From TrEMBL:
Record-linked InterPro entries: CHP03086, DinB/YfiT-like, Maleyloyr_isom, MDMPI_metal-binding
Pfam family, one: MDMPI_N
Domain of life: Bacteria
Residue ranges constituting the Mycothiol-dependent maleylpyruvate isomerase metal-binding domain according to the UniProt record: 9-131
Protein name, UniProt field: TIGR03086 family protein
Length: 193
């Protein structure tokens, strides 16, 4: 699978999850401890434009200094989030997105492959968070999960230092690729609502 297909594959499953979230589930807890469903949706809406912009080599500022300072879940949040996920996937389906360097916010340029990998991993990880919180059973293909596993394995220490990953959760070596990904990023694969 080429890098150009990764975001699209991750986005397809994330969009299915978004479409199946019911209004009465917005206050449900998620495995991402600091977020309930509404706050996680807000987080995705908040960071979507900067991540899309990074794929286009454009700096797009989020609407506030932090996602806790703004609520973007008013109105038809599901349609807005679905559209944003689609735009982000489209931006990262272009060859130029993965070339050279780019930035999300601020002056620091990072390898585009690192940011692209982060985008794909975020779609899978937060998709899983939302699915667990709302009783869904999403399915990601093996190639996509192998890519995500490689990415999070490579960036785990940096992710923890930045606060993006929690402390590693021990999972058996015989666990599925998804469960091993979840353990690396600090999620308990057995988390239940």
């Amino acid at each position: 699978m080429s890098d150009l297909q990764l975001a699209g594959r991750a986005a397809t499953t994330l969009v299915e999850i978004i479409r199946n979230i019911k209004p009465d589930q917005l206050d449900a807890p998620t495995p991402c401890a600091e977020y309930d469903v509404r706050k996680l949706i807000n987080h995705l809406l908040f960071w979507g434009p900067p991540l899309e912009g990074a794929g286009r080599k454009e700096t797009v500022r989020p609407p506030a200094a932090a996602d806790t300072e703004v609520d973007l879940t008013g109105g038809d949040w599901a349609a807005e989030l679905e559209a944003q996920v689609g735009r982000t996937a489209e931006a990262w389906s272009q060859p130029a997105a993965w070339e050279g360097t780019t930035r999300v916010v601020g002056p620091t340029e990072l390898p585009a492959t690192m940011i692209g990998g982060m985008v794909v991993c975020e779609m899978v990880a937060h998709g899983w968070d939302l699915a667990q919180a709302t009783g869904q059973k999403p399915d990601w293909d093996d190639e996509l999960l192998a890519f995500v596993h490689e990415e999070v394995s490579r960036t785990a220490e940096q992710g923890r230092q930045m606060g993006a990953y929690g402390p590693e959760v021990s999972v058996p070596a015989s666990s599925s690729t998804l469960d091993r990904v979840l353990g690396i990023i600090g999620r308990d694969p057995d988390w239940r609502r």
